[in-house]
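Predict the 3D structure for this chain.
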Amino acid sequence: MIMLCPENGRMNTLCYIEQYSPSMNITYREFSPSFLLQPYVDCYWIQTFSGFAGEVSPNQRCLPLGMMEIIIHLDSNRCEIYENGTWKKLPYVFIAGMYRETVVWRSPSDARKFGIRLKPETFPLLFKSPASLVFSEYTATENLIGNVANPLAEQMSEAQSTASMLAVVETFLLGQLKKGKQENNYIIDAARLIRASKGQCSIDEISRQVHVSIRQLQRSFQEKIGTSPKTYQRIIRFRTACEQLDRVDHLGGWAGLSYELGYSDQSHFLREFREFAGSVPNHLLGQLNQLQGK
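Done. Predicted structure below.
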C-alpha cells in the first residue's frame, strides 16, 4: 500500500489524504533496515496522529505498493478500515497483504502505528507462510503466523524511543531468519527483476533470466505471491508512476511520463492509473500540490 502524506513540510510517496485537516497533525517517518535484512524488508515506518479528543483523521487512501506489511498499534487507539460500506476496527497487530486496489482507512487522534514493510517473495523465509494467503486482504497476525508477533508488539509499545523500537524489531526479524532455512529460488529472482526494472521488464525476458517456462513462472508466482507476475509488474509500474508525479511537467506532461514509464501511450497509462488508484493522476497530483501549498 502506498500512502502520501506530509512529512516535515515535504511529500513522502506513501499516504494520500482525501482532505486536509488543519486541526490534526499527522507525521510519518521511514527507516531503512540493516544490511542483513534488506533482502526481506523494504523499510520500517512510524505514523502518528494527534488532534482534539475524539477527533478522527481525514480518510487515508492507501494505493497498491507491491509489498506486505506487519502493522502494530502502539497504543489502545486503533485505526479503522472501510469495508463493504462500513468502518471496521483493525486488529492491534495485523498483517496487510499485498493489495491490488486502493484501501481506505482512518485513525483516531492520539494514535501511533509502527509498520514493517516486507517484500512478498521472501515472506515465507521469515514466517513459513506464503504471501498468497493474504493477497488483497488483512488478518490478525496470529491467524497467519501464530503468536510470534505478540511479544514483539508488547516490547514495541514499551520502548521509550524510536531507536529502541528499531532495535527490538531488528532483533525479532533476525531471530526469525535463524529459525528458517534460507534459500534462493526463481520466484525471489523474478520479483526482484520486476522491481529493479520498475515494472518494465517483459514476462518473456524474466522467464528467460530465471530459467523457467512462462507457464511455470505464472503458476508458481500465483501460488506463492497470490497474483500473476504480469499483475505484479503492473503494480510496480503504477508505484513508480506515483513516485514520479512531481516530475510530470519536467517530462512534458502525462504523455511524457507515460513514455518514461514504458506505457504504450497516454491512454494506457491513464487506464492503469485509474484502475489502481480509483482516480485520475490529475486528482492525486492536485492533492499533493494542495498539501505542499502550491
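The first strand starts at residue 5 and ends at 7.
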